[in-house]
Amino acid sequence: MGNIISSFFISLDGVVESPDQWHFPYWNDEMGAAVEGGMQSAAAMLMGRKLYDEWSSYWTTTDADPDIARTFAELPKYVLSNTLEKADWANTTIISGDVAAGVRALKERIDGDINMSGSATTVRWLLANGLLDRLNLLVHPIAVGHGRRLFEDTPTHPLKLVTSETFQTGVLNLSYVPDTAG
């Protein structure tokens, strides 16, 4: 059975939007190893429509990192959308209609991790529907002050910390699971 694991670069004030504008000063070998470890465990990727549009246009045309582009092209990708009619990125399947049932079926047939990077709206929806298995946060020691936050006007979701690590840059590598007892 597959586990849906979502990962975010996040600021102290909860901002997840445009991490390319604030997270690079904190990038080091420790963070690189954490990110690479998550990528290596992926049996599939899950994303919302907006992230799919952004990533498919970027990773199918860039020469910036051909190894990552190849990895993303080869991985099975699943897009949650009732509006996307066609997915041109290699190995992409659209989950539409009863999306919750589609995600449950996906989890049943995938053996391994179903990774997500970004897609805050999708993560909130997965949490609300009891479908997210793990939330990994790389919490950066910066208050960005503006931008979309991971949790905006959401119901309460108790989470339980299962691992934590502090990088030399002050970034916290935190991993949570839904706390069903909470």
Characterization of the model:
By secondary structure, this protein is α/β, with parallel strands linked by helices. Helices cover 29% and strands 28% of the residues. It has 5 helices and 8 strands. It has helices spanning 29-40, 49-59, 66-74, 99-109, 120-128, and strands at 3-11, 42-48, 77-80, 92-95, 113-117, 134-140, 159-166, 172-178. Strands 4-3-2-5-1-6-8-7 form an 8-stranded mixed beta sheet, with helices on both faces. β7 (159-166) and β8 (172-178) form a beta hairpin. The protein starts with a strand and ends with a strand. The mean pLDDT is 91.
Query: How much strand content do the residues show?
Result: 25-35%
Number of helices: 5
Given as residue ranges, the uncertain stretches (5+ residues, pLDDT < 50) are: none
Shape annotation? globular
Number of strands: 8
Q: Termini distance?
A: 24 Å
Secondary-structure element order, N to C:
EHEHHEEHEHEEE
Q: Please estimate the helix content.
A: 25-40%
Rg for CA atoms: 16 Å
Described by strand count, sense and barrel closure, the largest sheet is: 8 strands, mixed
Mean pLDDT, all residues: 91
**Class by alpha and beta content:** alpha/beta
Strands of the widest sheet, in order across it, are 4-3-2-5-1-6-8-7
Q: How is this fold's topology laid out?
A:
Layout: E1 3-11, H1 29-40, E2 42-48, H2 49-59, H3 66-74, E3 77-80, E4 92-95, H4 99-109, E5 113-117, H5 120-128, E6 134-140, E7 159-166, E8 172-178
Parallel strand pairs: 1-5, 1-6, 2-3, 2-5, 3-4
Antiparallel strand pairs: 6-8, 7-8
